[in-house]
Amino acid sequence: MIKKIELPYKLDALEPYYSKETLDIHYNTLYDGYVKNTNLTLEKLEQARTNNNFQDIKCLEKNLSFFGSGVILHELFFLNMILYVPTNPSKSLMDQIEKDFGGFINFKNQFTQSSINVEASGWNLLVWVPNFNKLEILQCEKHQNLTLWGCIPLLVLDMWEHSYFLQYKASRQDYINAFWNIVNWNEVNKRWDEICPIYKI
Ligand code: MN
Fold first, then answer.
1. Which domains can be identified in the chain, with CATH numbers?
2. Does the pTM of the predicted model rise above 0.85?
3. Which terminus of the chain has fewer CB atoms gathered within 10 Å of its CB, N or C?
4. How far is the CA of 86 from the centre of ligand 1 (A)?
């Protein structure tokens, strides 16, 4: 059984950039649903193994990918936001961003444009690609499918409509502009330092 993460801030803590109402629905209803369905799927998989009955295995493993990825991406997204504490990429992460994107502004511009252009519901991610030994930005349009095997998510932005429509309507640009004010680089730095120890400049 997986457990819901506690938000490290109150529901209104990201105001005005991310409204209390949006976060309430996002965390308490949608994310909660992903956690419950992941646990239901894990239980059914356990039953299938116990009974040695794999009749529904295709459906169960698909559900695990869909709901499980929904849990993981939402947790990364919720944790990579904060307000009232100024944060910045660490020295080593900034060096890598400069190497791979030609500067922080270039990275920010690409991340913003990539987010705006996510087709329908999806995500935008800054990832570390161990096989290429570099940072990349990826759109993830169907989160049950990996877009690049082996990549490690560092910074995640939820581009499903539920994440911004209530507050920003159809203006993805306004939502993303607001997001840049609440990025928690401390959390991104932690992932970079702890999960990507093999980076090289
Ligand atoms: Mn979401």
1. 20-79 (1.10.287.990), 91-199 (3.55.40.20)
2. yes
3. N
4. 24
